[in-house]
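Saturday, quiet lab. Running sequence design on the structure tokens for the scaffold JK sent over.
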């Protein structure tokens, strides 16, 4: 249940006064249901975005409460102010909220948030694949093995499949790096197929259709278009 404590990231405002609430981040819907009954419908609130997502803001709005979300990086901060505590953060949010100096984050629906998570997963797979390719290519350079043409094409993949090393240690390293690249390539392709199938039914379909689809950067541009359309 939500109890009054000092340690909290959620700042509620009423009549320019600050109330801090700390609660269960796993299921905020069930945790704060009884606490919201004590609040008037004219209450205005703001809290700093965190890893728990936007569930708190969505449920609060369904109950008639004006709850906003602000990104931590967009909160104005005085130069040299290095002290950061929950109570100071709550008072700062209340003061800036009352003065109209906060820029609020877009609160997506549950469907949009699931779509965003998939986009992040695709982007994570792309970064992991890039790191795995770098590890493999740098290993080959240390062994003096070079491919004369453009890397990471079908011709390059066939060339990689034909490589063998005389010593067992180098061969084991090469097999592990190659398997990592192949596994991450399949993982990214599978995720992209799911993402492309979900685009047409999402609220981001028009934004994705307008995104510039440059050769070699199609998936990256679509992912950025989805993230920016919110």
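Result came back. Writing it out in full:
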């Amino acid at each position: 249940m939500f109890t009054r404590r000092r340690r909290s990231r959620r700042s509620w405002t009423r009549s320019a006064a600050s109330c801090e609430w700390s609660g269960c981040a796993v299921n905020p819907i069930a945790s704060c249901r009884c606490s919201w009954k004590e609040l008037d419908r004219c209450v205005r609130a703001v809290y700093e975005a965190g890893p728990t997502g936007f569930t708190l803001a969505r449920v609060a709005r369904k109950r008639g409460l004006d709850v906003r979300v602000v990104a931590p990086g967009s909160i104005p901060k005085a130069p040299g102010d290095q002290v950061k505590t929950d109570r100071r953060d709550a008072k700062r949010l209340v003061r800036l909220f009352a003065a109209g100096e906060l820029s609020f984050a877009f609160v997506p629906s549950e469907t949009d948030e699931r779509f965003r998570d998939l986009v992040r997963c695709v982007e994570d797979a792309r970064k992991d694949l890039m790191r795995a390719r770098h590890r493999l290519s740098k290993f080959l350079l240390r062994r003096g093995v070079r491919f004369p043409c453009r890397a990471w094409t079908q011709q390059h993949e066939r060339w990689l499949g034909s490589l063998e090393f005389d010593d067992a240690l180098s061969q084991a390293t090469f097999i592990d790096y190659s398997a990592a690249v192949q596994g991450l390539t399949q993982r990214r392709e599978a995720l992209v197929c799911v993402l492309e199938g979900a685009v047409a039914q999402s609220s981001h379909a028009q934004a994705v259709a307008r995104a510039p689809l440059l050769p070699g950067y199609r998936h990256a541009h679509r992912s950025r278009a989805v993230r920016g359309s919110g």
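Notes for JK: The first strand starts at residue 3 and ends at 4. Residues 123 and 223 are 7 Å apart (CA to CA). Ask whether to fix the surface positions before the next round.
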